[in-house]
Amino acid sequence: MNQETFDAYLLAHRERLLEDYKDFLRQPSVAATGEGILEMAALVARRLASLGAEVQIVPTVEDAPPVVWAEIGEGDKTLLIYNHYDVQPPEPLELWESPPFEPTIRDGRIYARGASDDKGELVTRIHAIEAWLATQGKLPFKIKWLIEGEEEIGSPHLHAWVERHQDWLRKPDGRPLDGCLWEFGGFDEKGRFVLTMGVKGICYVELHAKGVDHDLHSSQAALAPNAAWRLVWALGTIKDASERILIEGYYDHVRPLTPQEEAVIAQMPFEEEEIKQKWGIREFVTGVSGLEAAKRLLFQPTATICGLSSGWEGQGTKTVLPARAVAKVDFRLVPNLTPELVLDLLRKHLDRHGFSDVEIKFLGGYRAALSDVNSPMVKAAERAAQRVYGQQPVKALLSPGSGPMYSLSEFIGGVPVVCAGIAHADTRAHAPNEHIILQNYYDGMRFIGVLIDEFAR
Amino acid sequence: MNQETFDAYLLAHRERLLEDYKDFLRQPSVAATGEGILEMAALVARRLASLGAEVQIVPTVEDAPPVVWAEIGEGDKTLLIYNHYDVQPPEPLELWESPPFEPTIRDGRIYARGASDDKGELVTRIHAIEAWLATQGKLPFKIKWLIEGEEEIGSPHLHAWVERHQDWLRKPDGRPLDGCLWEFGGFDEKGRFVLTMGVKGICYVELHAKGVDHDLHSSQAALAPNAAWRLVWALGTIKDASERILIEGYYDHVRPLTPQEEAVIAQMPFEEEEIKQKWGIREFVTGVSGLEAAKRLLFQPTATICGLSSGWEGQGTKTVLPARAVAKVDFRLVPNLTPELVLDLLRKHLDRHGFSDVEIKFLGGYRAALSDVNSPMVKAAERAAQRVYGQQPVKALLSPGSGPMYSLSEFIGGVPVVCAGIAHADTRAHAPNEHIILQNYYDGMRFIGVLIDEFAR
Hints:
The structure is a homodimer. Chain A has about 450 residues and is an alpha/beta fold. Chain A folds into two domains: about 5-195 and about 370-455, Aminopeptidase (3-Layer(aba) Sandwich); about 200-365, Alpha-Beta Plaits, CATH 3.30.70.360. Chain A is about 30% helix and about 20% strand. Chain A has helices at about 5-10, 15-25, 35-50, 120-135, 160-165, 225-240, 260-265, 270-280, 290-300, 340-350, 375-390, 440-455; strands spanning about 55-60, 65-70, 80-85, 105, 110, 140-150, 180, 185, 195, 200-210, 215, 305-310, 320, 325-335, 360-365, 370, 395, 400, 415-420, 435. Chain A has a six-stranded mixed sheet with strand order 1-2-6-3-7-19, with helices on one face. In chain A, strands 10, 12, 14, 15, 16 and 18 form a six-stranded mixed sheet that branches. The longest helix of chain A has 18 residues, at about 120-135. The termini of chain A are close together. Strand 12 (about 305-310) of chain A pairs antiparallel with strand 12 of chain B.
C-alpha cells in the first residue's frame, strides 16, 4: 500500500469524516427499547452502499432489529467483520455532562452513547475502507461484513440467523473464512494496544417474584407475603457475600485453565492499582489481587444484579407492601458453562430452595468463545499494530465482556478471531459520558488500512 | 338531639355535600412529593371557617406541610379530633380504573386517592357538624381539631409541634382533654363496625448501598463490588425466609400480651379465609392461623420492604453493574419498641454484620400507642354505633396500622382515644382504586351527629 496517500486522504477529509461519525451518534438506536433501530440500520446500509458494497438489510424475526449484511472486494481470501449498530440505553440521563445523542467534543474526546460501543469502531472501519478505495484502488481480498442490531440485548436472534445463512459465512466450496475482525478492542490503562481472542459467555435473565394479588397497605406485613422480600431471599441463595455462586453444580462446569492459557494470562499486564483508583475502591471483591485477580476476571463465572425494582421508588415514604418485584441478573460464562445449562441449573436451584414461585425470564445469552492466539489473523493485526502504534500489542486470552463470537467462529468452521478497536480503558461503555479519544479514532483508521495491507500478505 | 331534623338536613343537602367531598378529592395533596399540600391546607381551613370555627394554619418547620388547627363550640368538656389532609402517592397510575384525582362514582362507591384515607373521614365529620349546627343549635361541648399534612410520610414534625403547643392540647387549668376521635376506622370484612383503641408504631428508613464510584460495564463483576448485591445481602441479614427479624436485641423489647389484652384480641373476629381470598394467597406467612395470626398481626413487630431500586429498571437488558442501590423499609412497632431504639439496633446490627457501608436514612416514625378500651370516649362511640348501625361494635385492642397517637394521647396527659370511621375492609387505602361505599359515608355523618349527642352526656 501507499501509506502516504492513504494518510493524506484521511487528513484532507478529517472534518467531513468526523461529521459522518457524528451523524451515526445522533441517531439513537437502543435495542432494549427499539428506539431508532430501523433508522440506524438504514443509515448504516446507505453508508456501506456508498463505498460500493453490495448491501442487504436482512430480517431476523418479526419486529426484531434486522442484520445489515455487506460484501465488498474480490478474492478467495475472505475477511469477516463483525459490528453492531445498536447501543445501550442512555440512562441515568442526569449523569451525562452533554446529552447522550448530541455528540459533543470536549478536551479532544467525542462524547455520546455509542461513541465507543460500537459506532466508533464501525465508522473507523468504514472510513478506512473509503480511504483505501480512494487511494489504493480495489481491496486485496473479499470482505463480508455482518452488522447486527441486538448485541446490547444479548443477540437473541443472531445465532439462528447465522444457522439460516451458513453458506454466506463460508467460502463457496464450504471452507471456513480466513479471519474475523471483531467489533471491539483498543487500549488498556497504560495505553498498550490489546488484541483479544475470546470472550466470556453470558446468560441474562429477569427474576420475577410475586406475593399477594395487589399492593397492600404495609400494616398487613405480619401476615401477607411480600414480593420484595421473596426476591431478596431468592437472590441471597444465588450468591452470598463471599462472592461464591451457590447454584448447585455450577462450578462443575468451570474447567481449570490449561498451562498455555495460564501463561497467556500471566503475560497480560494487569494494572490493578489504576483500576481500583478508577473505580474508587480500595480492594477487589474478596480481596483478590495479582494473577489471581486477572484469572478470576477472565476465567471465573459471575452473577451480577444489573437492576432491582419493586414497590415505591419515588421520593419519601409510601407504606406499601409490594405485590411484584423484579431483578435483572447477568451471568458471565466460561467455556462449557452454556446459557442453556445456567437456565436449567438456576431453575433447579430456586426450586430446591423453596423459590419455585420465582419466575425466570430468559432475555438473551451466548456461549463463551476462545480462538487461536497465534492465527494468521492475529499475526496480521500484530504487524499492523507495530507499524501504526510502534508497539508489540498485548495478547489477551479473552475479554471479560461477551458477544456472539461462538456463532461467528467455532460454529462456522473455526474462523480465527481478533478483537482490535479504538476504545481506551476509561471509555465508559454502557455508562454515562461514554466517549472516544479523537486521536484514537484518527489512528484507528490508519490501523485498519495497514491491517488490510497485512492481512493480504 | 332531634335526630329527625338532623337526618332530614343531610338528605336535603346530599348532592351539595357530595360535591364538597369531591372538591376535597380533586385537590391532590401528596406529602411524599409536596404536590398540592398548601392548596389542600387552605381548602380545609376555608371549609372549617365556614362552619364558624376559629381556624389557624400553623407552620411545622420551614417548608414542611403546616397543621390546620380549628376550635369550635364552648364548654369544659373537650373533644380532640385528629385527621390528616395529605394522601399517599397515587402510583402505580396504570392500575387505576379512573384517574386518582378525578373522583368517580361507580356502583355506589366513590373512587379517588384519599376517598378513604383520610379525606372521607374528614368530610364526614365536617358535614355532620354542619348539620348539627343547622338543626340542633350550638355544639354541646368544645371541639379542638388538629388536621396535619404529613401523616402519610410518618408525621415527622407533629410531635415537636405538639410539644410546642401543649397548652392548646390541655384544658386551661392543665387537665387533659376528655377524649380523642382518631382519623380512621370503619367496618371489617363481615360489615361489623369496629372501634379501635391503639396503633402500632412505625420506623421508616431508606437503606443506601454503594459500590464503585460510577456504574460499570457488568463484565467487571468478577472484581468490582456491586451495590445491588450489597443491599440484597444487607437486607438478608435483617429478616430471613422464616419471617423472624434477625436484628440482635430486637425481640428483647417486645413484651408479652397481658391476659386482658389477649382476651380483647380473642374476642375480635378475625375473618381469616376472607382475608386470604382477598389477597389471593392460600396461607399467611409462616403458615400461622387463628388466634396466633391475629396476635401476630397486632402484637408482633414487622420489617417490610416497601420499595427496591437499583441499576437498569427499564425494558429489556442493560449489562450494567450498579454503583448505587436503595431499599425503603418500614418497621411496624409494638409498645416499648420505639423508632429511636430501632434505628440504634439496626445500625449496630448492620455494622456487626459487615455492612457499615450501608447508610440508614430515617424518613419518619412514631411510637406504638394503647388506650383504655373502656373509657367514656369509647362508651359514647359504642352507644352511637348501637343507635346508628344497630350493632354492638367490635372493640379492637389496636390497629396494625400506625399514626401519631402517642403524641395525642399518652403524651398530653392520657387522653382516651377511639378510632371510628367509614372505611370498609376492601377500601384499598394506599393502593390503586381506593374508594368509599357511599352508604358508609351517608351513615357516617349520622354516626358523628349521634356521637356528639352521646359524648355530651
